[in-house]
Design goal:
The protein is mostly beta strands and 193 residues long. The protein has one domain. It is built from 2 helices and 13 strands, in the order βαββββββββαββββ. It has helices spanning 31-34, 151-156; strands at 3-7, 57-64, 67-71, 77-80, 82-90, 95-106, 109-124, 127-140, 145-148, 159-162, 164-167, 173-178, 184-189. Strands 2, 5, 6, 7, 8, 9, 10, 11, 12 and 13 form a 10-stranded antiparallel beta sheet that branches. The protein has a 3-stranded antiparallel beta sheet with strand order 1-3-4, with no helix packed on it. Strand 5 and strand 6 (95-106) form a beta hairpin. The longest helix is centred in the C-terminal third of the chain and has 6 residues, at 151-156. It is globular, with a radius of gyration of 18 Å.
Length: 193
């Protein structure tokens, strides 16, 4: 099969409930019917900190490759080369939920990874610590996984970030996590409907 590439100028990211996209597994079931929100009612490993009011809410970040695979014989769009998305929810009680979706495509092989975590978060002087109390992995592609995180994986997934707020060109809040290499995640607040 001859594969051509097609550049597109679109952005892909929809945050709907607990799902980033509405992907499906090999059986065609939407992942939203396979996964449910992590249970944050379990006793967290540490007590939650006071949550800054300006960060409370649902934040989303995502990107999609402009590179698209197209079947040169049929003209059928086979999909984008890669995409990712994240929904990060900070609750007033000092807990969080995090939903991450990553998709990679090499011709007809599509690997998808959906990871959820929930637990407590701590905000202090431009620093953020996410301490998961519960997490789940779901992958499809060359290796299929559908399981909860182990206690050791939860300990290994405590994440430390720098963070700050900025304003977008249209005056909306932007939650920013910068990295040492100059890259950064820029989360947009989900607008109320």
């Amino acid at each position: 099969m001859r594969i051509r590439t097609l550049l597109i100028t679109s952005t892909l990211f929809a945050a709907c409930g607990t799902m980033l996209f509405a992907p499906s597994d090999a059986s065609g079931r939407e992942w939203s019917t396979i996964l449910s929100s992590p249970d944050t009612s379990a006793t967290p490993a540490t007590q939650p900190s006071k949550m800054p009011e300006r960060v409370v809410g649902k934040w989303h970040y995502g990107s999609v490759s402009a590179l698209q695979y197209v079947d040169g014989t049929t003209g059928q769009n086979l999909g984008s080369a890669r995409g990712n998305g994240e929904v990060l929810i900070f609750k007033p009680d000092g807990t969080y939920e995090d939903y991450v979706y990553i998709e990679m495509r090499t011709y007809d092989l599509v690997s998808r990874c959906f990871t959820t975590t929930s637990g407590t978060c701590e905000f202090t002087d431009g620093k953020l610590i996410l301490r998961p109390a519960k997490g789940h992995y779901l992958t499809t592609g060359s290796r299929n996984i559908d399981r909860d995180m182990t206690e050791q994986e939860l300990k290994d997934n405590v994440r430390h970030y720098n963070w700050h707020m900025e304003k977008t060109d249209d005056g909306e809040d932007k939650f920013v996590i910068p990295f040492d290499d100059g890259s950064r995640f820029e989360y947009r607040r989900e607008k109320a409907e």
